[in-house]
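Bench notes, afternoon.
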Amino acid sequence: MRFLPISLFVLGLLMAGCEPKKTATDFETITKDSAFRSAIKTGAFIKLSQGYTYYEWNNPQADTVLVLVHGFSVPSYIWDSTFHAASKRGYSTLRYDNFGRGFSDNPDAVYDVALFTDQLHELLDSLKITKPITLVGLSDGGRAISSFAAQFPTRVKNLVYVDAVSFENPVENLGHPAEVTEKEIEEFKSSENYPKMGKGQLIDFYDSIPFRGWDKKYEDIMMFKGFARAIISTRKNRTPLVEEHRKIAEANIPVFAIWGEHDTVVVLNDVRSNLTTRFPSAQLFVIPKAGHLPHMEQAKMFNEILFDQIMRGK
């Protein structure tokens, strides 16, 4: 089975064998301090145990709650089309930046699934969201939603995986928890591919032409200090989630999966067997002419599946 849990390009960058240049390129010039947070005019910040989390929450009084969890490195703006569509439909819709991504803090921590699960749990509690939620995880967000649902099954109404990581064949990580050294960060920033990370995001699309400028937006988030360390730590601290999936199945949480037919990042045929074995009653929707980001490439079709077939149960 081919294991492609994150962008092929990003994974390639993080391989230990990258050949360093003599002079490192370092885009990280911005510190996420109080002045930085004050300059952000969208959303809001809330202080959790590991630092500040940036979030946006529309229609907080609505009965139906949708929570959108982003993937490996692109923060919550990746959910723009879904977030605004859900808000227009009147759903209570929450999206946020994981630690180490976007506007949220980059704490000195191990970036494993426990960190992201605790962040989501604390955020929901701090915002006093107690109603069962429809929890949607994109790509690497599949790991966080699996862990959260296994720990807090009564808080999840629907569990929706979108081209998600967590169904690969389990490989025990004997090095977890693993620290990240300054040498690793320096070698990463010295690699020839580090400046090209933004361009690498374009392979997530089946057809990237309509999304020109997507790479430039990614280059902006590379400017935050601690970004490289966070993504290296996340890669080094991946653990199997078979036990979490077992608990989800035992809790009878409705599970749905939405996949881009042409995804080359998390290939459906590589994970389909584990998905259907672990969740025999899961409903799978395959979206044509879409790669790793079907909610962007085929927004109308994706929204009909999420809102009409899953959330409204038509």
